[in-house]
From TrEMBL:
InterPro entries noted in UniProt: DNA-bd_HTH_TetR-type_CS (IPR023772), Homeodomain-like_sf (IPR009057), HTH_TetR (IPR001647), Tet_transcr_reg_TetR-rel_C_sf (IPR036271), TetR_C (IPR011075)
Lineage top rank: taxon: Bacteria
This protein's record includes keyword Transcription: yes
Keyword annotations of the record: DNA-binding, Repressor, Transcription, Transcription regulation
GO molecular function: DNA binding
Name of protein: TetR/AcrR family transcriptional repressor of nem operon
SUPFAM superfamilies xref list: Homeodomain-like, Tetracyclin repressor-like, C-terminal domain
Coiled coil start-end: none
Domain HTH tetR-type stretches: 9-69
Length: 191
């Protein structure tokens, strides 16, 4: 039985969605092709009709996740408040791919690293545009604030996830948010 082009596209999105959740939740090495196909509700044997290899699936999953990155938040501090929440920290499977997979992607093929780098560039551009758009920063300051703020947020989520002390985990998130808000307030006051 042939599958229509529309069904192929739907199945592909199911596979990418399942892979994105599983990779973020468990990491690349702990997820098999069979796991992904099962989570997508498809048979393992059909995988190679969609992807040449697991490496290709990883790359395309990262590209898929990058396309979902926009939040609609207009200010870095508002975005940071959502990002540095306990809800985001605790929902690894649906959370930020950079915080969940960044360290693992370093050990992946160059194509996966390139996809992650493209996501980083896109995120820096988004956050820079937000900072510059509210008039608080010129272009260079907006880029610096975007890189510094994003680095602080990703690092804070990684650290908050790895500690086994809930109070320390919450403190890492709240203090990082306070630091970002302070940076934003200092820059806004100087303009």
């Amino acid at each position: 039985m042939r599958v229509s082009r529309e069904q192929v596209a739907i199945n592909r999105q199911k596979i990418l969605g399942a892979a994105s959740r599983l990779f973020r939740e468990r990491g690349y090495d702990a997820v098999t092709v069979a796991d992904v196909m099962n989570a997508a509700g498809l048979t393992h044997g059909g995988f190679y009709g969609y992807f040449k290899s697991k490496d290709e699936l990883i790359v395309q999953t990262l590209e898929h996740l990058i396309g979902q990155g926009e939040t609609g938040e207009t200010r870095l501090t508002h975005y940071a408040a959502r990002y540095l929440s306990g809800e985001h920290r605790d929902n690894i499977a649906d959370g930020c791919p950079t915080a969940a997979l960044g360290a693992e992607t370093v050990r992946q093929p160059p194509e996966a690293r390139a996809a992650m780098a493209a996501g980083l560039r896109k995120q820096i551009e988004r956050l820079s545009a937000r900072s510059q758009g509210d008039g608080a920063y010129d272009a260079a300051q907006a880029r610096r604030a975007a890189i510094g703020g994003w680095s602080a947020m990703v690092g804070a989520v990684i650290l908050a996830r790895l500690v086994d002390d809930p109070a320390l985990s919450d403190e890492v998130l709240s203090e990082t948010l306070a630091w970002i808000e302070h940076q934003d307030a200092d820059t806004s006051a100087s303009h």
